[in-house]
Amino acid sequence: METGKLPPDVLEELLSNLEAADPRVLVGPGVGEDCAVVDMGDRLLIAKSDPITFAGDNVGRYVVQINANDVACTGGVPCWFLPTVLLPTSATTEDVRTIFADIAEACRQIGVTIIGGHTEVTDGLPRPIVAGTMLGELKDRSRLVSTGGAQDGDSIIVTTGVAIEGAAILAREHAAELRSRGIEGTALETAASYLDDPGINVLPAARALFETNAVHSMHDVTEGGLITALREIAAASNLGLVAEADSVPLLPECAAICEALGLDPLGLLGSGALIATMPAGDVPRALRALDRVGVTGWEIGQMMERSDGLWLIDRNGERTLPEFRRDELARYLEESSHSFR
Q: Which of 90, 79, 50 is nearest to 220 (CA)?
């Protein structure tokens, strides 16, 4: 099998055989649904688990943030974190200290408490693999937001810019290759700093949109990029959609990196971007709410009936929404014989 997410049809088959025997499970396993939701009586418990497999450095920061992002997309507040750190035999004590320091600092910045986890040295790993489980809560039970909550006719907005995470990893870990392909040092430095500016944290954006009480669905952009995230919203909501490629925000350094390496930014790792759907009439209010927290949003498309299909409009006209069976970063690393560090 290729690296990356399981094919959606395989995943759907596997998840269809799982039963939520506990009636308190309000949202269980499902294609496109990133968080489980459990009814705890006076509030909802939000649970998310995700690993970091592409990045070679800053894995501690990445693992906290991507898990927190998913909790925030439900309207919940991230509260507690459990990391699982698997180390190769080549790891040093200093490597472990760095990972733990990064995890602790990332949790401190967003007010999350580390409540447990697991660490071990494991044979056969080329680099550290760090996974995490983030637990959060939503006190207003009636306001849960899910990936599958999009409605026919909803406008689709996206924040900040696509492929931020992928561009940052490439600039940080493959700078020599990019320089050889004409990317200047200043552009590499800017892209390498994407982890901090604009950053991969969507918590402020998710909270601002949630407080408008207008959003039907929120979903952060991760592996497989914007296109995969849109497909997941459509699948979870049982809808179709149309998106306009020219309306999608793309930072200039990211565009340059993708062009140099022959990558499609619409299929590249994209933490830092948040997708939300809402009635068209609420879009101006939502964009103003984002602006108040220093985040820019763009309207890029519309949800439609499932029978209308999945479409992308670009400079060549209208075509079926592409599908990325693996992230563009994984494709580049494999086809260029690079290894994950």
A: 50
% of the chain at pLDDT higher than 90: 77
Mean pLDDT value of segment 126-131:
89
Q: Taking a C-beta distance cutoff of 8 angstroms, is the pair 291, 179 a contact?
A: no
Q: Residue 88: what residue type?
A: P
Q: How far is the C-alpha of 289 from the C-alpha of 205, rounded, in Å?
A: 8
Q: pLDDT higher for 117 or 341?
A: 117
- How many C-beta atoms surround the C-beta of residue 90 within 10 A? 11
Q: What is the rounded distance in angstroms from the CA atom of residue 197 to the CA atom of residue 191?
A: 9
Q: How confident is the model at residue 341 (pLDDT cuts 50, 70, 90)?
A: very low
Task: Give the whole-angstrom CA distance, residue 277 versus residue 99.
Answer: 35
> What are the tens digits of pLDDT across the range 31-82?
777 899 999 999 999 999 988 876 667 889 989 999 999 999 999 999 999 9
Residue 198: the pLDDT is 94
Query: Alpha carbon of 223 to those of 43, 133, 183, 230, 325: distances in Å?
Result: 30, 18, 24, 12, 10
Q: By three-state DSSP, how is residue 308 classified?
A: helix
The model's pTM: 0.90
| CB burial readout 143-172, b (16+ within 10 A) else e | ebbbbbbbeeebbbbbbbbbbbbbbbbbbb
Alpha-carbon distance of 169 to 18, in angstroms, equals: 35
Give SS3 for 337.
Answer: coil
- For the chain, the first-to-last Cα distance in angstroms comes to 20
Mean pLDDT of 146-155: 96
- Secondary structure (DSSP) of 259-307: HHHT--GGGS--TT-EEEEE-GGGHHHHHHHHHHTT--EEEEEEEEEGG
Among 235, 257, 49, residue whose Cα is nearest residue 162: 257
Give the largest Cα separation in the chain, rounded. Answer: 58
Contacts of 10 (CB under 8 A, 6+ apart): none
